[in-house]
């Protein structure tokens, strides 16, 4: 298959719009489940040709940077980071080779589109209303898409995500269905405080899940085993963007990460 993709200024807007519409339709078609908490199970998120181009234009290991937060505590003994990332914003991926830049710029712009955001808000309305009330649709949501790569040794213990977040989306990017067992695990919290595993997402090509962050959205990932080369996915997080503090925090983090990225790219 031809993996080239030309996005000239005159057709980039059309390409982004078409991809945004396709992803939004996948969100609208996704089944909604209530147990152990409200969530969507996504399938065929990207067109087949776009998905193939994504897999054919994955960045090199040197293009990623360490993922901070909970994953930082699971670095290997030799200091190797078990989760790394690339922010899919134009200012971060501009150092990628031209062809790779074209692919990931398209994907990043589409995932940040109002069309995709509105689809997630519509489908996750019951959970969003429980958290934010009747005005949930007017609550600002700031999208941050990142391409992540996990290697053997990565794991994350059960957690519910920070309340800075409004919606969590993960889109799986495997090349085949040989490692479906490494998908995200959903838990139910019982009255005694225990967190039994209730449901595991299948780490299958071009699939994913989404949920509105709440006090019951317990999820985890088992340790990635040696049978896995890389566990690639896109984390699309919608941060709550209501109020002055959150507004400046979201954009300040983006700018700070940009500065760090530029310094890293200037180092020999």
Tell me what you see in this structure.
The protein is an alpha+beta fold and 268 residues long. It has a single domain (32-266), classed as q2cbj1_9rhob like domain (Jelly Rolls). The protein is built from 7 helices and 12 strands. Strands 1-2-10-7-12-5-4-3 form an 8-stranded antiparallel sheet. Helix 1 (9-29) crosses helix 4 and helix 1 packs parallel to helix 5 (114-123). The longest helix has 23 residues, at 244-266. It starts with 8 loop residues before the first helix and ends with a helix.
Q: Give the overall shape, derived from the CA principal axes.
A: globular
Mean of all residue-level pLDDT scores: 90
- What would you give as the CATH superfamily? q2cbj1_9rhob like domain
Q: Strand order within the widest sheet?
A: 1-2-10-7-12-5-4-3
Briefly note the CATH topology name: Jelly Rolls
CATH class: Mainly Beta
Stretches where pLDDT is under 50 for at least 5 consecutive residues are: none
Order of helices and strands: HEEHEEHHHHEEEEEEEEH
Which architecture would the CATH scheme give at its second level? Sandwich
Helix content: 25-40%
Instruction: Give the number of DSSP strands.
Output: 12
- How many alpha or pi helices? 7
Q: What is the rounded distance between the termini?
A: 35 Å
Count of the separate structural domains: 1
**Which structural class do the helices and strands define?**
alpha+beta
Give the percentage of residues in beta strands: 15-25%
């Amino acid at each position: 298959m031809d993996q080239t993709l030309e996005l000239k200024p005159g057709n980039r807007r059309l390409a982004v719009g078409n991809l945004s519409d396709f992803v939004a339709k996948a969100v609208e078609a996704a089944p909604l489940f209530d147990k152990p908490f409200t969530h969507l199970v996504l399938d065929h998120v990207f067109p087949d040709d776009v998905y193939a181009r994504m897999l054919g234009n994955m960045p090199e290991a040197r293009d990623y940077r360490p993922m901070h937060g909970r994953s930082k505590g699971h670095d290997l003994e030799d200091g190797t980071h078990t989760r790394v990332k690339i922010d899919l914003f134009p200012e971060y991926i501009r150092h990628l080779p031209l062809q790779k830049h074209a692919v990931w710029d398209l994907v990043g712009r589409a995932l940040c589109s109002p069309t995709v955001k509105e689809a997630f808000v519509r489908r996750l309305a019951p959970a969003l209303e429980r958290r934010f009330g009747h005005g949930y649709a007017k609550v600002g949501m700031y999208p941050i898409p990142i391409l992540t790569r996990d290697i053997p040794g990565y794991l994350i213990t059960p957690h519910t995500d920070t309340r800075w977040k409004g919606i969590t989306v993960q889109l799986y990017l495997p090349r085949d269905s040989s490692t479906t067992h490494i998908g995200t695990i959903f838990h139910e919290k019982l009255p005694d405080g225990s967190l039994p595993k209730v449901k595991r997402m299948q780490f299958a090509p071009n699939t994913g899940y989404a949920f509105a962050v709440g006090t019951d959205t317990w999820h985890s990932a088992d340790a990635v085993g040696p049978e896995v080369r890389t566990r690639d996915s896109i984390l699309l997080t919608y941060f709550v963007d209501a109020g002055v503090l959150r507004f400046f925090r979201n954009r300040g983090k983006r700018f700070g990460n940009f500065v760090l990225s530029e310094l890293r790219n200037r180092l020999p």
